[in-house]
Amino acid sequence: MIVTLDGPAGAGKSSTARALAARLGWCYMDTGAMYRAVALMALDRGIPLDDSAGLAELAEAITIEFRDGRVVVDGRDVSTEIRTDRITQATRPVADAPPVREAMKRVQRRMAEGMDVVTEGRDQGSVVFPAAALKVFLTASPEERARRRHQEEAARGNGVALAEILAAQSQRDEGDRTRAVGAMKPADDAVIVETDGLVAEDVVNRLVAMIEERSRS
Ligand code: DC
């Protein structure tokens, strides 16, 4: 069975998807981490970020695994490295390139084949798994999302201003919404869940109830 969780950054997708997969005993697929991994390997191997054919080839050539909450690429733990600003920036042109998205669609479908999976990203319900048993679009107000990010940054000791986070977030959202291929949008049959004021556990409980209901019918 496949459950997709899409939505903008800061809506609580990662913590929800991770907790949901743990609760169900299913696999967790973080597709943002997959795009980040391709960007990291491209920089490592000197593949230019505007070489979309080269990037697509790379996306299919590398092996990405999710092991105990870590992201492992060709046997190397890249969990921390893929979250740096340098990689966040390099990931944008990678995720925007249509040939890379086509390659990732194939890779993601292959990884999920025959498995019970909670997959998280921007286009999982709308493009990659249109027949998923449950499609969720997780969202929250821009202010709430920026506030969460601000708290995360503060916890890491980074004193970034809230206004700065909000501005960067609007720019990223716009890019995600307007990219030619794989634009972030809810699938027509997605359940929209607003997470303002909710903690991950509330959201997970709600999703588990939906999944149980769907497996009964
Ligand atoms: O969710 P994240 O911040 O780790 O995602 C990293 C980048 O990849 C971000 O620019 C959005 C993009 N992305 C995408 O285009 N499609 C996905 N399914 C997942 C992420």
The set of bound ligands, ions and cofactors reads: 2'-deoxycytidine-5'-monophosphate
* Secondary structure: number of strands: 8
> What is the distance, rounded to the nearest whole angstrom, between the alpha carbons of the first and last residues?
14 Å
Spatially, the strands of the biggest sheet line up as 2-6-1-7-8
Q: Which regions contain 5 or more consecutive residues with pLDDT less than 50?
A: none
Question: Counting H and I runs of at least 4 residues, what is the number of helices?
Answer: 9
Q: How would you spell out the order of helices and strands?
A: EHEHHEEEHHEHEHHEH
For the report, how would you describe the main beta sheet?
A: 5 strands, parallel
Helix content: 40-55%
Structural class: alpha/beta
Rg calc: 17 Å
Proportion of beta-strand residues: 15-25%
Rounded mean pLDDT is: 94
Shape: globular
3D structure, described in words:
The protein has helices spanning 13-24, 31-45, 52-61, 85-96, 98-112, 124-128, 142-155, 162-178, 200-216, and strands at 2-6, 27-30, 64-67, 70-73, 76-77, 117-121, 134-139, 191-194. It has 217 residues and is α/β, with parallel strands linked by helices. The mean pLDDT is 94. Residues 9, 31-33, 35-36, 91-92, 95, 121-124, 176, 182 line the site of 2'-deoxycytidine-5'-monophosphate (DC).
Keywords:
217 residues, three-stranded antiparallel sheet, 9 helices, 8 strands, 54% helix, binds 2'-deoxycytidine-5'-monophosphate
